[in-house]
Each structure stands twice: as structure tokens, then as C-alpha cells.
Amino acid sequence: MPLTAQELDRFADLVVRFAANVQPGQVVALGTEPGKEPLTRAIASAAYRRGAKFVDVASFDIHVKRARLEHAPEDTLEFVPPWYGERILALGEHRCARIGLSGPVAPGLLSDLDPARVGRDQLPFVAESGQVVNDRTTNWTIVPCPTAAWAELLHPDAGPEEAMDRLWEQLRHVCRLDEDDPEAAWRERLAALVGAAERLDGRRFDALHFEGPGTDLRVGLLPSSRWIAASFHTVDGIEHVPNLPTEETFSTPDPERVDGVVRATKPLALPGTVIRGLEVSFEGGRAVQIEAEAGAEAMRSLCARDEGAARLGEVALVDREGRIGPLDTIFYDTLLDENAASHVALGRAYEFTVAEDGDRERANRSAIHVDFMIGSPEVQVTGITRDGDRVPVLRDGAWALP
Amino acid sequence: MPLTAQELDRFADLVVRFAANVQPGQVVALGTEPGKEPLTRAIASAAYRRGAKFVDVASFDIHVKRARLEHAPEDTLEFVPPWYGERILALGEHRCARIGLSGPVAPGLLSDLDPARVGRDQLPFVAESGQVVNDRTTNWTIVPCPTAAWAELLHPDAGPEEAMDRLWEQLRHVCRLDEDDPEAAWRERLAALVGAAERLDGRRFDALHFEGPGTDLRVGLLPSSRWIAASFHTVDGIEHVPNLPTEETFSTPDPERVDGVVRATKPLALPGTVIRGLEVSFEGGRAVQIEAEAGAEAMRSLCARDEGAARLGEVALVDREGRIGPLDTIFYDTLLDENAASHVALGRAYEFTVAEDGDRERANRSAIHVDFMIGSPEVQVTGITRDGDRVPVLRDGAWALP
Questions:
Q1: Do B116 and B62 fall within a single domain?
Q2: I want to staple B163 with a disulfide (CB 3.0 to 4.6 A). Which of A174, A356, B158, B390 is the partner?
């Protein structure tokens, strides 16, 4: 399936009208990278056609980040100009829409650099964006953008054009653009995810137990942790879908009650580097040992970033009915890979997944938020009630919870 | 001369170390566009090697601007998100360096659009940048960036590679990169320009009289208008060269004493549109009639932007010893074309070219600043003293002022 201008416009309309749900008169912040111009322009055009007041494109160049990591003094690498955070907070104050484009443009560009230095520079992630997400003042979404480099990474034996066609074929499938009415298909899938979240909520589990090859991990939950699926609402009542595609149901762990060992079930692609064969041991909520076949130092550096960086801020369950898992493809892009499998995230919690103020104060805080995949059909997930009863949640990748 | 990575690095070092004069520890704001990645990255790398604390790249996509001009409601086209101006003001507060890259990436992209709508959207120009220039809180420069589209525009009969080689040959000549020591060559030329400015300052002319084909224009000067050449100093004493290349000496007109008619001697390239055969009549400082062979409406729309948009904010003299004029080439880029010939600018004045507070308050204010070229070897420039004496300033393109 070739990636034509018409296909791009159809995707852009789904992103603007359904996923981000841009309202007429809104300012739209669009985060992109050099190499993503075609979809960036299609989305900007779709947003203006939808009635957006302004489209504020911010383009982050990972080659410039590489120059910084190569040459800048170590003690400056965590510096972020104050106007970066002020802009993000202003997007919340002005009730803007926010659209981000995932998909690698230069895979491996940072992989030969000192991982301790790489871990110090979190850009393009800006810490204030976590606050804006928690404030629910913006309707936002992150969607995958086809790039030449990504196509080549996934289809190294095809020529550039054929590789792009194949990548687009995959993306249109997982984004349900191969349906006659993609929006209707998404509303159906979202209803199923919301249903699973409601069943989980009804049980008020004290903890989840993950068991599988190399994994024996208990993740405690806060008393008022809620399960959320990808239908979000802003404080003004605008519904939006934060990830497209999305196949997950997620909640907030107790950052002090995570114990055991977990083996990642997929590689984790950080900006410019890939962590393979990750294994993390937790004690009292803290990641006390981090090993990996590749990239362990980058992961350790991330976890040393601040007090909360070594604790969990998210736990998410993904069943096998999603469209990403069955492709059995590593996309080297967290947006897609995390929706292929159950996962946890180190770092900042999404506080809106906690109902009560007292619990919300206990949710994890950090400048980072890094997901890694721990689920597979071989990993069984069991809920543990406050009385210590064990209730099957996911068995062989399927929902087992009545 | 092929544009190699080594050539780019050599140019980037001249831009960072000489023109912008980036200081170790400074934040560098770098304004660029999609299509300018190679020089952007070379400059970022040069800045970090020089000791910059951070390089803040802002990339403006004229294709997104086109989508806005096509689809957004007319009454929103002057809207600029408040954080755009706040960022510029923060660059001043934090004493940053600023580097901008000129050179078209998509010539004519806006030329089929309604010029009245085009004139309402001044981006990427942000009004606050005029204040920061006047505050002299940033060391800044604008330099030309070779692009594929620019190469094709100037050398339509050559193939892409050959066209780029020829454009680079022109740019390296006008930027004096073909000298063994480009910085020394520039210091010599700047000394000559500063000398001309000092001789003009010594005369304290009341007005300048431009006479040539289609031109008979008197441009009044304020009593304390000063002549400035391209060696600037920040309030902290950092010397910088705001334009590279630069061949001009400029001052501030009296916005109420400009009378007569002036014919532009070169086409004027605005973002996405080209004004040809421009002729402007002034009465009492105001542009009362604007005609052109092409693009008159865009120019009229610009002049209607605000009260000061139809009055002059700059008058600049360029002699024929510069390197741009002798090439007899229209570059379709104001940075280069304005340095080929004497020119005036509609809109905002550079207040630092006025010595006394009372006069400074009379200098022109506007959201726009648009240069157009009025000089040529056929246009004679005469100074008029307060006593009405006439003193030759430029004759046949050469300085005539002893």
C-alpha cells in the first residue's frame, strides 16, 4: 500500500478530528522532527481545515542533541532553557491541543556515546509536560509518523520505496486505517478497553503478580488506584485518545511496594539507543539491580536521574486482541511496542489514575517516564485481593477476569 | 566549489566565533527552516565546540504557514501565540546569542494566495525581536544558508548538484570564505564601513536626496540620527556582526519628513512572494501610493498593517566596493540583495541609531520591518545640511564624501 498524499490526509484527519479531537478556535501544538515533514504538514492542514486558530510546530533535531552530548560540559547536560517549560505550561493555561509524532528518524544515532551522558539529557521530553497531563488542561495525542529511516530499520532488505510502503501497510493496519470507518473501529475497541478497566476497578486489587520466564514480580497498587483506558477527558470535557494506536489499560502502582525480578519481553528503544535483554530487580519499590545485554548503563543512568526515577509510575495491561502484538514485530518505538504487551514505567505517575488525595500524594514523582515491556502470552497476570486471594487477570494473553 | 562538510564547518566556525561571537556558557538561539539541516547542525556543533551551554533550534515551516493562509479565518491571521514573544524577550533577559539563517527554501510558495491575507501574517518575524535588538541584550547575526531550492532558483539550467556548487561558489565569495583568513578580511572591510559611517556622522546632515531613473526622494534625518556600520556591541560589550555578509552603513530617518517618489532598483523577495517594479510615493513621511509590476497588493497590505508600517524606519547606503553588487545577481534574499545597493525600510526603526531620547521617541514604530533596494550606480546620493548646502555622498556608486 503506497503512502500517498490522500492516505496522509486521511490519517491526519483521524488524528485531528478523532484522536486529538481539536476544537475550532484552539491553538494546536505539534511536536515533530526533521524527516517528518509530510505528516507534519498534513496534520497542520487538517487542523486549520478543522478550524484551529494556530498550529505551533516545534521541531526537535536529534543531530543537534548529538552535538551537545559530544561537546557540552557534563554539568550542563541537564539544563533546559526555562522558556521550554513555560511554553508547555502556557499550552495548558490556554487550553491548547497537543499532537506528538513518534517514530524514529535516526535510529542508533546516540548509541556510540557515553550512556551516562546520554541519560542526563531528557530532551525533547520536558518535565512540565507531566504536570500538564496531570492537570488535564490539554486534549492531546501521540501518533506514529512514517519515516525513511524507520522504514529501512524495519525492512532493511527492501529498497527505500518498498520499505516505506511496507511500513505504511503496518501502520495503517495498527491504526485501523484499513477499515472503511476507522473512527467507528476505534470507538468499538475503546469500548472493550474501557470495559476491561471497569472490571479491574470493580476488584480493587491490592497488587498484581506477574509470572513468566525470568519474571516473578509483585506490583502493589494504591488503595484508590483506578484503571484507565485510552479514552481521556480534559477538565473542560473534551474527549481525546492520548495514543493512537492504543491497546492498553493502565493504573498507578504503589511506588514503595514493588518486589521481585522482571525480564523485559521486548527491546526498549530510547532516543538514539536500544536497551536489549533488560532485567530489573526491585526491593521495596526501588530498582536495586539493572542488567541488560545491551544498554544497561543508559538505563542505570536514567534511574539515577532523581529519587523517583528508580521507582514505578505506571503499570499497564495489554491483551492479545490488539493489532500490534499479533504482528510479532519489534517496532523500536515505545508507542507501538508498549501497546503490544503489558508494561511498567519507571518515573512519573499519571496522578489522575488515583482517586483520593492522600493516595495521590504517594504516587511516584520524577523528571522521567520510561515504559518497558514485561508482558507476553507466556507471562501470567494474577490479581491479589486485600484478603490475599489470587484471581486470574490475564491468562495466555487473554482477559481471564469475569 | 563543492559544498563539503569541511566547507560547512569552516563557515559555521566563522558564523559562531566571528559574526555572532558566541561566548562560552551562552545559550544560542538558532532560527532555521526545514531544508537547512546541514548548516543548522554544523552551526550547532560549532557553538557547542565553542562552549555554548545550549543551542535552542527553532524551525519555521513555510508550508505550515501556507496551510494557515489557505484555511484559517481572516481575523486570526495576525494572532501570534504569546509564548513566541515571551521566548524572544527571555533570550534578551538571559543574554543569549541569536543566529538566523536566511536563504529561500520554497520560493513562490505563497505567490498564488490572496496578498492581503499574506500580509497579515508576519511570522516567522516576531515583533518582540525588534525590542531585543533595540535593547542590545543579545549578540546576533543573520547569515545565508545554501538550500536546494535556492540553488535551483538561481541556476535553473544546471542539475541539482551543479546548481548547489555554483550557489556555494557565490556564497563563499560574498562571505569572504575564499580568503585565507576570512575573519581578517572581514575586519578590514568593517573598518572601511565604520570609517564611512564616521564621516557621515561628522556632517550631521538634515536630509539625504536620492536622484536617479524614476527616483527623486528626500529622506529627512532626525537631529541626533547616527550612522552605524555592521560592527555592533551589546550592553555587555560583546562585539558582533549582525549580517554576514554586510556592506551597508545605515541610520534612522525622520518618519515625518520623507517626500517624493522612489523606484526600487531590485526585486524584493518577501516570504513566498516577489515584488517587482515597485514604485512608492511619499508625502510627509507616509507612503501614499504604492505601485508595482507584480506584488503591489502584498506590499499595500504590509503598509496597512499599522500606523508605522507606511513610514520609514531605516535608510542605508551601500557603496560599490562590496562583493555583492559587482556580481549583478538578484539573489531573491533580502540579506544579500540589500547589501548590493542602498535601501530604505518601511516599519520599525532601530532606536540605537538615534542618540538623544527626544529624537528616539520620534523614531518610527511598527510590527513590520521591510527593506527594499533603491540604490544603483545610476542613483546619486546627496547630503543636505541644515543650512541647505548640498554635499555629494555617493557618486556613481562610490563614496564622494571626504
A1: yes
A2: B158
pLDDT tens column, B48-84: 999 999 999 999 999 999 999 999 999 999 999 999 9
Looking at the fold, whether B307 and B259 belong to one and the same domain comes out as: yes
> Which residues constitute the domain of residue A156?
5-174
Pick the residue from chain B with its C-alpha nearest to A59. B59
Same domain? B212 vs B147 = no
Find chain A residues with C-beta within 8 A of B45's C-beta.
67, 70-71
At B320, is the pLDDT very low, low, confident or very high (cuts 50, 70, 90)?
Answer: confident
Taking each helix axis from N to C terminus, what angle separates A37-50 and B62-71, rounded to the nearest 10 degrees?
20
Average pLDDT over residues A367-375: 91
Q: Are residues A153 and A281 in the same domain?
A: no
**Model pLDDT, residue A204:** 94
Query: What is the number of structural domains in chain B?
Result: 2
Closest-CA distance of chain B to residue A150, Å: 19
Tell me what the pLDDT averaged over chain A comes to.
94
B53 and A72: CB-CB below 8 Å? yes
Please report whether residue A190 resides in a domain: no
Question: Is B189 among the domain residues?
Answer: no
Question: A14-23: per-residue pLDDT in tens?
Answer: 999 999 999 9
Q: Is the pLDDT of residue B384 over 80?
A: yes
Any domain includes B323: yes
Q: How far is A124 from chain B, CA to nearest CA, in Å?
A: 11
- Kind of pairing, strands A54-59 and A27-32? parallel
Let me know: does B16 contact B22? Beta carbons within 8 Å.
yes
Whether residue A236 is contained in a domain is answered as no
| Record: contact B87-A83, CB cut-off 8 A | yes
Contact between residue A126 and residue A88 where contact means Cβ atoms under 8 Å apart? yes
Given A56, A72, A83, which is nearest B86 (Cβ)? Answer: A83
Q: Which of B37, B67, B73 sits opposite A34 (nearest CB)?
A: B37
Nearest CA of chain A to the CA of B382: how many Å? 47
